[in-house]
Specification:
- By secondary structure, the chain is α+β, with helices and mostly antiparallel strands.
- The chain has 4 helices and 7 strands.
- The strands form 2 sheets. A 5-stranded antiparallel β-sheet has the order 6-5-4-1-7, with helices on one face. It has a two-stranded antiparallel sheet with strand order 2-3.
Length: 172
Amino acid sequence: MGPAEPGDPTPTTWAAWEQHLVDAVLALPDGGSVTVAAPPGHARLARPSTRSRLRWLVGGRRRPISPAARLVRVEDHLRGHWPGADRLGGPFPWSREEVEAIQALGWHAPTVTDGEDFVRFWPDDVAQGPYLPEADARRAAAALAESFRMVLDLSPEGGPPHVGWPALQISS
């Protein structure tokens, strides 16, 4: 698959955007993912994310990077990835207040085994059936919508400060 199809209607409310994400999540094959990218205007300058001692070869110049969350189907669960903070080894330059907001929204700080992103799981316990019940898909979509609204101050329904909807990119 790829980006949302050209014929897909542009959402006009968060509820419509969440439904579009729920539909995409429920259709994921095992190992498939949906990347949800912030709309234009949210890029920040960040140093290349590399833990190598040869970092200076890559260059210390800061480059624009936009936040993008990812939902990945892993057997009967959905694993959420929210871009990690650069001070925690992640790629994105979140402020301390933004990191606190991310964690207050239920995202867990990355551990050595998690990689560099904040993580969440749906269901957050033992799966009660095959893949993901629709209620858990709705909880995941609501969590992403709330994260974009609260952390990035995204409010396309009301116009400024930042206009535009997070874009979905589906990968099998």
